Amino acid sequence: MTDTTDARSMRERMLAGDLYIADDPELGEQSAAALDLMDAYNATTARQGPLRRRLLEELLGSIGEGTEIRPPFYVDYGTQITIGARCFANFGLTALDVAPITIGDDVQMGPNVQLLTPTHPVEPGPRRDKWEAAKPIVIGDNVWLGGGVIVLPGVTIGADTVVGAGSVVTKDLPAGVVAVGNPARVVRTL
């Protein structure tokens, strides 16, 4: 059941990881601003490096030196995403940042990686009424996410870990391992 008497704004509820209404007008405006920046970024060419950098600095919470994200790149808000230095994300990164997404230094992501923080109620009524929540994602330093990896809400991936292409990470992974599959399972220690 949802608490409709909570006096906090939907944004405050969202940032706290509590249930909130996804199509709230204030959130809609913030998302629209992010979508405008995202569209501008995705329209750039490889020869527009300085413009790309400026757009990412405006869109994201923070981005480290030497980090490259190849368009297209998709976000909900952008401001909830922190990316460290010297990272690389290949084409098609989707980072749904309803909750914070923290990416360390030297992280490599293959094409079509998805970082998904939103959660939805299992009960049909609240879901129909557009309630949702979110849990943060943390990616440690020097992680490699292969193409098509999906990281689900609330997951932390430890430093130096490799996640094989097409894997679905449903729970935390320790540092220094190789994990593969759906759900991703540790198959080797590095």
Describe what you observe in this structure.
The protein is α/β, with parallel strands linked by helices. Helix content is 21%, strand content 28%. The chain contains 4 helices and 20 strands. The protein has helices spanning 10-15, 25-42, 49-59, 124-128, and strands spanning 20-21, 62-63, 68-69, 73-75, 81-83, 88-89, 93-96, 101-103, 108-109, 114-116, 118-119, 131-134, 137-139, 144-145, 150-151, 156-157, 162-163, 168-169, 177-180, 185-189. A hairpin with a 4-residue loop joins β19 and β20 (185-189). α2 packs antiparallel against α3. It is globular.
Q: What sequence of helices (H) and strands (E) makes up the elements?
A: HEHHEEEEEEEEEEHEEEEEEEEE
Approximate strand percentage = 25-35%
The CATH topology is given as UDP N-Acetylglucosamine Acyltransferase, domain 1
**Total of DSSP H or I helical runs spanning 4+ residues:** 4
What's the pLDDT, averaged over the residues?
95
How many angstroms does the end-to-end distance come to?
44 Å
